[in-house]
Amino acid sequence: MKFISKHSEGLHGEIKIPGDKSISHRALICASISEGTSKISNLQESEDVINTLNSLKHLGVNISFENGSYLVEGVGFKGLKKPEKQLYFGNSGTGIRLMSGLLSTQNFSTTLIGDESLSQRPMKRIMEPLIKMGVDISGSKKDTLPLSIVPSEEIKGINYDMPVASAQVKSAILFASLGAEGETKIKEKSISRDHTERMFEYFGADIMFSKTETTLKNTKKFSSQDIKIPGDFSSSAFFIVAALISKNSEITLREVGLNPSRVALLKKLKEMGGKIEVFNQSLFGKEPIADINVKSSSLIACEVKSDDVPNLIDELPILFIACSFAVGISRFNEIEELKFKESDRLKAMQEGLLKMKINNYLDGNTFFIEGMGQNYKSPNFLVETYYDHRIAMSFAIAGLKSSSYIEIASPESIDTSFPEFIDLGKKLGCNFEVS
Ligand code: S3P
Fold first, then answer.
1. Would the CB of 92 count as within 6 Å of ligand 1?
2. Which of 2, 74, 174, 205 sits in a 20 to 30 Å window from 324, CA-based?
3. Average of per-residue pLDDT across 251-260
4. d(CA 270, CA 41)
5. pLDDT tens for residues 146-171?
6. Mean pLDDT over each residue of the chain, to the nearest integer
7. pLDDT value at position 340?
8. How far apart are CA 230 and CA 283, in angstroms?
9. Which atom of ligand 1 is nearest to the CA of 234?
């Protein structure tokens, strides 16, 4: 497949953004271990989420699709069955890390694998706390995949100060704690997304959470629930930035998840002068949602402080694109976590920005981008995306501001999180060409 994003004159219209990836993984897993049948609507139907769904089916959970919703027949905390083969999680760090926590307390062994990118990502960050809880988990010599988990005698709750703010690590510990003896208390340095905590509460867990502290008391069971998944804020981010940096644009995005631990990008873009309005606020379960209206704006540079990084970690690539068309030098502090995502996103973005002829440089852990303002038109080029969906979508949006086009290498990666991206983009007026 060849994907070219061409200069576009303006975006207009209104779309509904498909379900949130983080919440979709959690909804499937929590429903699978609850008692009773849960109905999940607006599940994200991306490769990442479908890999989690398939692994739950291999673990003996019945999941069917009826009238636009998924029906998950929960088997309880201890009802999963030994899978016949290794469980495959494709590109998904969230899928594999959350499921490792869950599988830590089962009475059978499992091996977890993934694609080339996932096979290189660090797993020590989940292995360390799980081993402290008494879990028998091991990886390759470099603490990467395959992960192997074998049953152990006694698994205990843990008091854990997390060295890196990471919702995936926190969630792996919380899922393992469901089958462990005693209480678990987790402390974080900065706030990471709290979808697991909200979902656990929704399913009836005895959980308390404040900004950087989570306590899970012994919880015996989850009761099945109906769940409506909010639109994915991280997917919305691409079109929010697209509308801001394109002239003569106005778009509305419906039913977007606005969990406070995910929306630092909105705050940042507003500080930069972005004309963004949030309205029709309501709740889907324990998760806040709203509609978002965005208009073309002349942006000024921003500064991202280290405490904001976990909150906008997935949006940094598209924020770099916004900053490229802002006036002034933007500064991003302590963004090294970006190196450990689906690709080394810092390297991938630096390379692509250089091809856009946008000056950027790293000073230690601080990254700088010299914005060229809204009138800038980048040259035409082919961008390497390292099979990373967010790199591909970020440069697809940059292509709208090119003098003619940007070609996106390995665009298939987009299906890992947002298979509808190209069609929805075209609906809004993005000049996307696929051949
Ligand atoms: C996620 C947490 C984040 C994020 C990822 C999804 C989650 O990762 O980058 O895309 O669903 O828990 P970390 O928790 O490793 O920062």
1. no
2. 2
3. 98
4. 31
5. 999 999 989 999 999 999 999 999 99
6. 97
7. 97
8. 9
9. 10
DSSP 204-233: T--EEE-SSEEEE------B--EEEPPB-H
Number of H helices, E strands in the chain: 12, 24
Q: Enter the tokens of residue 46.
A: 């991306």
- Every domain range in the chain assigned CATH 3.65.10.10: 3-19+231-434, 21-228
**Domain 3-19+231-434, CATH:** 3.65.10.10
- Cα–Cα distance for residue pair 273/168, rounded to 1 Å: 32
What is residue 109's predicted lDDT score, i.e. its pLDDT?
A: 98
Please tell me which residue in 194, 232, 291, 314 is annotated as part of the active site.
314
Look up residue 249 and give its amino acid. Answer: S
Predicted confidence band of residue 13 (pLDDT cuts 50, 70, 90): very high
Q: Confirm or reject: Cβ of 166 under 6 Å from ligand 1.
A: yes
Q: Concatenate the DSSP letters of all residues of 18-58 into one string.
A: PBPHHHHHHHHHHHHTSEEEEEEES---SHHHHHHHHHHHH
The upper half-sphere exposure of residue 368, i.e. CA atoms within 13 Å in the direction of its Cβ, equals 8
Which CATH code is given to the segment(s) 21-228?
A: 3.65.10.10
Give 295-349 pLDDT, tens digit per residue.
Answer: 999 999 999 999 999 999 999 999 999 999 999 999 999 999 999 999 999 999 9
Q: Could you tell me if the CB of 263 is within 6 A of ligand 1?
A: no
DSSP state of 327: E
Residue 404: what pLDDT? 97
Q: How confident is the model at residue 73 (pLDDT cuts 50, 70, 90)?
A: very high
Tallying the residues shown for the chain, one arrives at 435
pLDDT at 87: 98
CA of 248 to the centre of ligand 1 (A): 34
d(CA 379, CA 359): 14
How much is the pLDDT for 293? 99
Task: Tell me the Ramachandran region of residue 429: left when phi exceeds 0, alpha when psi lies from -120 to 50, beta otherwise.
Answer: left
Q: What pLDDT was estimated at residue 385?
A: 98
